[in-house]
Design brief:
Elements (H helix, E strand, L loop, with lengths): L6 E9 L3 H12 L5 E3 L13 E2 L9 E2 H14 L3 E3 L3 E5 L5 E5 L3 E10 L3 E3 L5 H5 L5 E2 L2 H4 L7 E5 L3 H13 L2 E5 L9 H9 L3 E4 L2 E7 L6 E6 L5 E4 L3 E4 L3 E3 L30 E3 L11 H20 L2
Parallel strand pairs: 1-2, 1-8, 2-5, 8-19, 10-17, 11-12, 11-17, 12-13
Antiparallel strand pairs: 3-4, 6-7, 7-8, 9-18, 14-15, 15-16
The protein binds NADPH dihydro-nicotinamide-adenine-dinucleotide phosphate.
The site of NADPH dihydro-nicotinamide-adenine-dinucleotide phosphate has 17 residues, from α5.
Length: about 325
Amino acid sequence: MPDNQDIEHVKVLIIGSGPAGYTAAIYAARADLKPVLYQGLQPGGQLTVTTEVENYPGYPDGTQGPEMMEDFRKQAERFGTDIRFGYATSVDFTGTVHKVVIDENKTIEAEAVIIATGATAKWLGLESEQKLNGFGVSACATCDGYFFRGQDVAVVGGGDTAAEEATYLAKLCKKVYLIVRRDEMRASKAMQHRVENAENIEILWNHETKEVLGDKAVTGVRVFSNKTKEERDLEVTGFFVAIGHKPNTEIFKDTLNLDANGYIKTVAGTTKTNIDGVFAAGDVQDHVYRQAVTAAGTGCMAAIDAERFISSK
Ligand code: NDP
């Protein structure tokens, strides 16, 4: 904990601003718990870097991820949530009042804390990928695809994210290579059909990335077949990594029980963690469903759990 005098006491502190955090805020604010919500590094969360959302109930014609998160924010604000910029940098959950340090210099003391910090994109871990990150290497087609319009690009991954990114890029780019490490995709059938039906997407089955080529910007990608070991250079200017996510739990790892992949463990059927008064909602505790609607559902549960915890004290 920082040695400073900037301490504020609140009833409910919510960390994170994806569907889980904002839904927790709507419920906590309507229960008159005067929640304070810190948005974190990516206000609005992962949906701000997606395009079309077609599966969130209540939007019969679909909506755009960033717009949907604006709606969530406005709804949370409408009931009086105090929404702030700021990033939780450390926690102390050892006392009866929980302490969370924001931006290393302000301490919030809360009766209940709702953790909704979500998950972050994973990288392959290649040196060349890191070197060229931002210079042709990206983890977000929606953010960066526009820069590659009319060009050839590659996407790596075989899940729904990779399928979605490849389909999105196929509309902007001349050609999209999809690098899949197995002989099948993990993506839903509907998403796979979209990939297969796009004329300018070529799927490289059983292929992995050896190196991203280029000095100051991406000029290509060296891939290899994990069956034949044969190498091939793809002439692309963009390389999009879409291989999944890592839960944002670094600051909680010494206090909260996490599973082998770093997701916060909760008591089945609740959002309770191993610490009284600390609740977890959304992707930070869910590696199975990982949907906006399930995140919102657990956000609602966390606010109700927090409300019951505070009134039982
Ligand atoms: P997933 O974990 O579902 O898929 C990750 C993919 O990346 C897998 O195909 C995996 O291969 C591959 N992969 C992992 N590591 C590597 C590596 N080092 N090299 C090459 N390939 C690798 O993550 P997603 O982000 O795709 O999806 C997460 C969740 O979000 C899912 O539940 C998904 O359904 C959901 N989602 C839904 C969307 C929608 O409905 N519109 C859009 C996007 C995501 P392998 O299969 O071999 O393990």
